[in-house]
Design brief:
Helix content: 55-70%
Radius of gyration: 37 Å
Number of helices: 19
């Protein structure tokens, strides 16, 4: 065979040995070729699939990122907690939740602590609880109204509340109208089993009026002068203190003084001025305590562990007994022994002692944690606002609730003299519960007025959320799922 023919035969054989691609069905016009047919064509031409890296299958080991160490977990938890606390609605929820929990737990403890007292005066066991529950319902309505009111309306109510409160406090001192309870002439009789203590509303009146006064002066840049910072705030506060001390209520006067100091501190009072006012108040308090044997006996009962043989310091000693017998988790709800006539006022001033006896250290620490959360949230509201009225009012309410809780709990623990003030939102007493719940609603309103919180609340409304979802979802062609 000639050489040319042999070369042609070899060329034909080589061409025949090369695999040809599969014939694909002709695609209709306008329709792209499916991915499956393209894949078959690539496989037919000898193209290989991309190889997976070793160890990436089911049996292989997947490479993992190295761990940051043992400190990564707590650090991550701390960062999450910090981000959660920095959210716009945190203060709003903390104020609302802590105040409601304190009120509900207070209702439970009022019922447990007052059962024996009610039976002792020939009343049903739910007598004091029913009155406190009614006051809590009315206070809840006031809190809701205060939380929904705008800041301008709160400022407009400052002067009317102050004038009505002063009128009622003057009316208390009129013979035949005012009532004396436990030696204090600070009550008005409303009919039936209901009484009113106007001095409790004096705390709220001083906060609203003082915050409005200081805010207007700060807008005019007058707080840099001493006379504008003190007048007329300090004279009006001394007028309220004088009306309270005419009735002999030293405890309420101490709380009112603490509110005055809180407002001056927030207004930026210089140290010399603040120390001068504090020194004058301390001198007046020493004089009032020195001239009253009852107040001197209360001062002498600080830190006692057992009553005197003549019966002195009985209440302070049995308060310590109640706390000491509670242990870690208490004797059980309703199983207190000190409320059977041993501890005076178990449902009002010394309800914290009954809480420690029945719920133990865990219960008392829970109450302290709730008050600490409420106070910290109030400080946050006062510190993050740009409105001077909101800052002064929120700071005044926080000072009021925190100072009163410290004085009450300190007296039960024997660290402070017995001042006769109730534990806010917790102790029995409708006259103390109503203005306090209104003040909590005031702080809720301030927390809602924050621009970031207002935007977050607006996004939570059903209508806004539905419109937002409708804007985000794109329309699909008919027939798609």
């Amino acid at each position: 065979m000639p050489a040319d023919e042999r070369f042609a035969v070899r060329r034909d054989r080589a061409r025949a040995s090369v695999p040809r691609p599969l014939a694909a069905a002709p695609a209709p016009s306008g329709v792209p070729l499916p991915d499956e047919l393209a894949l078959r064509g690539r496989l037919a031409t000898g193209a290989r699939r991309p190889e997976k890296p070793r160890g990436s299958g089911r049996g292989g080991s997947v490479p993992r990122t190295p761990r940051t160490g043992r400190g990564g977990g707590p650090r991550r938890t701390y960062e999450r907690a910090r981000r959660a606390w920095d959210r716009p609605l945190t203060a709003y929820y903390v104020i609302l939740g802590s105040s409601l929990l304190i009120t509900v737990l207070g209702l439970v403890m009022v019922y447990s602590a007052s059962m024996i007292k009610a039976l002792d005066i020939s009343k049903p066991s739910t007598y004091f609880f029913g009155k406190q529950f009614l006051a809590a319902v009315i206070g809840g309505a006031l809190m809701l109204v205060a939380a929904r009111m705008p800041v301008k309306l709160h400022r407009a109510l400052a002067y009317p509340i102050l004038m009505v409160t002063v009128f009622l406090m003057v009316l208390v001192q009129v013979p035949g109208i005012g009532m004396s309870v436990n030696g204090n002439q600070n009550w008005l009789y409303l009919g039936g089993p209901f009484q009113l203590q106007p001095s409790e509303f004096g705390k709220l009146a001083l906060i609203l009026w003082g915050a409005d006064l200081l805010a207007r002066k700060q807008d005019k840049r007058l707080l840099t002068q001493w006379k504008h910072m003190l007048v007329p705030l300090v004279p009006v506060a001394f007028m309220l203190l004088g009306l309270i001390m005419l009735g002999g209520d030293m405890g309420t006067a101490i709380i009112l003084t603490a509110i005055l100091f809180g407002l001056l501190w927030l207004a930026g009072a210089p140290t010399r001025l603040f120390a001068g006012v504090l020194g004058s108040a301390a001198a007046i308090a020493f004089l009032l305590i020195r001239t009253s044997p009852n107040r001197m006996s209360r001062l002498a009962c600080m830190g006692v562990s057992e009553p005197d043989p003549e019966g002195g310091c009985w209440q302070a000693a049995h308060g310590i007994y109640a706390l000491a017998s509670g242990g870690w988790f208490g004797s059980g709800l309703g199983a207190s022994v000190e409320k059977w006539g041993q501890l005076p006022e178990p449902h009002t001033d010394f309800i914290f002692a009954i809480t420690g006896e029945e719920l133990g250290l865990a219960g008392t620490l829970s109450v302290l944690a709730l008050f600490a959360a409420l106070g910290y949230a109030g400080i946050r509201v006062a510190g993050r606002t740009e409105d001077p009225f909101v800052r002064f009012a929120a700071g005044g309410v926080t000072t009021w609730i925190t100072a009163q809780a410290v004085i009450n709990i300190g007296a039960v623990l024997g660290l402070l003299p017995i001042a006769g003030v109730p534990l806010p939102l917790f102790s029995y007493g409708g006259s103390a519960l109503l203005p306090t719940m209104f003040a909590v609603g005031l702080m809720i309103a301030f927390a809602r007025e924050d621009p970031a919180a207002k935007a977050a609340l607006a996004m939570r409304k059903p209508g806004v959320r539905w419109k937002t979802m409708r804007r985000r979802v794109k329309k699909r062609p008919s027939g798609e799922r």
